[in-house]
Design a protein that fits this description.
It is globular, with a radius of gyration of 17 Å. β1, α1 and β2 form a beta-alpha-beta unit. By secondary structure, the protein is α/β, with parallel strands linked by helices.
Length: about 250
Amino acid sequence: MARKPIIAGNWKMNNTLAETRTLVEGLIPLVKDAKCDVVICTPYTDLALAVELTRGTNIHVGAENVHWAEKGAFTGEISAKMLVELGVEYVIIGHSERRQYFGETDETVNKRVKAALAAGLKPIICVGETLDEREAGKVEEVLVRQTKAAFDGIDKEELDNIVIAYEPVWAIGTGKTATAQVADETIAIIRNTMAELYCPKCAENRVRIQYGGSMNPKNAAELMAMPQIDGGLIGGASLKAEDFSKVVNY
């Protein structure tokens, strides 16, 4: 299999500079022999320090959002060029919390993805259904729509630089987790959509899809054993070096 696993931590709105130093310095020796790609996505204020601390290690640094414009009157936003200048490599786009609380749409996700790629960043594109959508039998409809919208106008050559994170919204921060089988079957919907958009071989060999619904040290091995799951987008468990390292070293 050509798809290398990737475990990314999403710190969300957590960690001061002092806390960042403690966490990263504790994490470095614990994941130095990891067989997967390791990414930490931090708040903007922590990015420069995270890049400095991880330089020369196997840990990559990502941001939690990026604007689609290069510059302009967008108070509070950060451009892709600004992130690249800091040494950032990855960026989370379209997280459910951005969609729920800050008006993110399928269209703005696509615009952010294009801006990130143009600047040389690697997007981690989030898609996923709410509990209401799952109970209404709309899982496939939602995932197909979000995936197609996110990749609208994206060339096949960019697939190696993009990660998809499937995050069942009902399982984020709730402690609930889809069974490994359900997660695998749902991610297969996304992979099949990518096969339709590009080609079956591309989807099978070049599209990495993470599971983002409360993966933790207890369930990581079971989830990662599934054929469709290529990694995890980790929330709460990424805030403790020992817990995150156990997921990385599943």
